[in-house]
Design a protein that fits this description.
Layout lengths: L3 E2 L2 E5 L10 E3 L21 E2 L4 E6 L5 E6 L2 E2 L6 E2 L3 E5 L5 E5 L5 E5 L3 E4 H14 L3 H12 L7 H19 L8 E2 L4 H12 L3 E3 L12 E3 L3 H6 L51 E10 L4 E2 L47 H14 L4 H14 L32 E2 L2 E7 L4 E7 L5 H11 L10 E3 L3 H11 L4 H5 L1 E3 L2 H4 L7 H6 L13 E5 L4 E5 L9 H8 L2
Parallel strand pairs: 3-6, 5-12, 16-21, 21-22
Antiparallel strand pairs: 1-2, 4-7, 5-6, 7-8, 8-9, 9-10, 10-13, 11-12, 14-20, 15-16, 16-19, 17-18, 19-20, 23-24
Helix pairs in contact: 1-3, 2-3, 3-4, 8-9
């Protein structure tokens, strides 16, 4: 490789006196990590398995170069050490692989195509900054390099999956224990990583011990506010409302079991001098409109067996041969979605004609036409109504069918106020309080001592009402205060006593001094309330933590 004459090492080669060194891909391990070492003086070293292979590499300068691939081998346990992974035999004599978390080069094709890790980082930045997919990234790279060799869509997808899998496993602290089938396809690798970090919900163990100045503060007390010159007022204020509408009426208590025994929040006094004051941590919860298709049955939450044009999960795949009108149950015609009942055939034909033409430009065109025709002052604005014919005595919008796969409602995320992700879960039919509480219970199931002091949520009052009515002795009531973020608190009802007393983001009576910070302006000391910017969400953290 150095261009030297093998017969005369003192003389340079006449063909290339100053050759360009070839890239060599090899593992960083010198000894086997699986074989036990009985004697420290006898270490099972690795040997080259076979003659080196010539492969193509996309280097860190976006150049396609040829390189030599060397694979190390353990003669004792038959493990093979590649630059980006290790393959070995498990106790069932099946070949499995273990990923190298920080390889310099990543294989992106089974036909000897590799890429430098810097390319994967550039691809990740393009995803975060420009929302670019792997196909767009491949086109951009090929247009920029203008090389004879090109990065295919499949190779770009593999590069993204290999890099993001390592990032997710490392962030979830699953990198040491993760194994999967040796040399898996992109689909099977993604399935194995999802199984390791969580399919329908997950939690980041490292987040339970996280603490920084942006989400964790030394606990404050009512006496601290008084010493700083705060003027404490009533607690029944509603942010952003005129003073005449902000008068509390003790008689307005709705007939709600969640507020039947509502009382004023207790005032917190500072501990005796010398005793620890403790810390307060604030978590933020929100639902994101990140969806995916699921089984066509409303009650089923299973993933589709075929995401291209499938309608059912693996458990209900047999329903594809049954009439899509529920509860018909008759066999479907060959290649059709309904049985031979004429009314079912006609209704499905109308459904297909209506929704096969439904597209974003089409919806905009319909709304634009409605705006042009809305000369009547009684018309409240454009609307798009989807009307279907009735099926027998059932209105068209109430017909239950399986003609199309359903989708999840949203992705519920929980993170610290600084943006550090904690956990996530899926809401399938709606963002109901029961589903949200189930997600919280699952996240802190193994870490009850790490529950936050405060959780900011746009519908915290409904969540608190649900917790109280379901279990008055819930640990959430004893450990955590649920507050509505200031942006959504403005729109909450002024007559909701539970929301105004217990979910106020910045009560002025000093009942929650952790939520009130004082700052001094040119005239006087004013209160700084927790606003939506203080409870902001970090897109980059969640993209890294969930891959979505």
């Amino acid at each position: 490789m150095l261009g030297l004459n093998p017969h005369n090492l003192t003389a340079p080669s006449p063909l290339s006196p100053f050759p360009t060194p070839r890239v060599v891909l090899y593992t960083s391990h010198l000894s086997c990590i699986f074989c036990p070492v009985a004697d420290l003086n006898i270490v099972p070293t690795l040997r080259r398995r076979e003659k080196g292979q010539v492969v193509w590499v996309l280097d860190d300068k976006f150049h396609w170069v040829q390189a030599d691939l060397l694979i190390a081998h353990c003669a004792s346990c038959r493990a093979d050490y590649y630059p980006d992974q290790i393959t070995f035999k498990d106790k069932h004599n099946s070949r499995r692989q273990k990923l190298e978390i920080s390889p310099e080069y990543i294989r992106i094709s089974k036909h000897g195509i590799w890429a430098h890790r810097h390319i994967a980082v550039v691809q990740e930045n393009a995803l975060n900054r420009f929302h670019s997919g792997w196909s767009n990234f491949a086109d951009w790279l090929n247009d920029s390099t203008r090389s004879e060799r090109t990065l295919t869509y499949r190779q770009s997808q593999r590069l993204f999956m290999e890099h993001s899998s390592r990032r997710l496993l490392l962030f979830h602290r699953k990198d040491a224990e993760f194994t999967c089938k040796a040399h898996p396809s992109t689909r099977f690798l993604a399935a194995a990583v999802r199984s390791a970090i969580g399919v329908n919900g997950g939690v980041l163990e490292v987040a339970m011990s996280h603490g920084c100045v942006d989400c964790t503060h030394i606990k404050r007390y009512r006496s601290d506010l008084i010493e700083e010159g705060a003027i404490l007022e009533g607690a029944l204020d509603v942010a952003g409302m005129p003073a005449e509408e902000n008068v509390a009426n003790p008689a307005i208590i709705p007939d709600d079991p969640g507020v039947a025994q509502v009382t004023m929040p207790p005032q917190q006094e500072a501990p005796i001098a010398g005793e620890p004051r403790g810390y307060s941590r604030l978590a933020v919860m929100d639902g994101r409109t990140i969806k995916h298709n699921k089984c066509a049955l409303d009650a089923c939450e299973g993933p589709l067996l075929n995401y291209k044009n499938g309608r059912f999960c693996e458990d209900h795949i047999n329903l594809r041969d049954v009439c899509g009108i529920i509860p018909c149950g008759r066999p479907a015609r060959d290649g059709e979605l309904t049985c031979d009942t004429q009314s079912h055939m006609d209704w499905h034909r109308q459904y297909t004609n209506r929704f096969s033409r439904l597209s974003f430009p089409g919806v905009r065109r319909v709304i634009r036409r409605q705006q042009e025709l809305a000369d009547d002052p009684t018309v409240m604005g454009p609307s798009l109504r989807v009307e279907l014919a009735a099926l027998s005595d059932t209105p068209g919008d109430q017909v239950v069918h399986t003609f199309k796969a359903k989708s999840t409602y949203c992705l519920q995320t929980v993170q610290w106020a600084c943006g550090f992700p904690i956990g996530w879960g899926k809401c399938y039919r709606s963002e109901s309080s029961s589903q949200v509480l189930a997600i919280l219970d699952k996240i802190w199931e193994g870490h009850p001592e790490a529950r936050p002091s405060f959780i900011a949520y746009d519908d915290a009052c409904s969540l608190l009402r649900h917790i109280v009515t379901q279990d008055a002795n819930s640990q959430w009531i004893l450990t955590t205060k649920f507050i509505v973020d200031a942006w959504h608190y403005i729109g909450h009802r002024a007559t909701d006593i539970l929301c105004r007393l217990w979910c106020n983001p910045a009560p002025t009576n000093g009942s929650q001094p952790d939520l009130v910070l004082l700052e001094e302006d040119a005239n006087e000391r004013v209160e700084k309330r927790v606003d939506s910017k203080d409870l902001g969400l970090s897109e980059a953290f969640w993209t890294e933590a969930t891959g979505n």
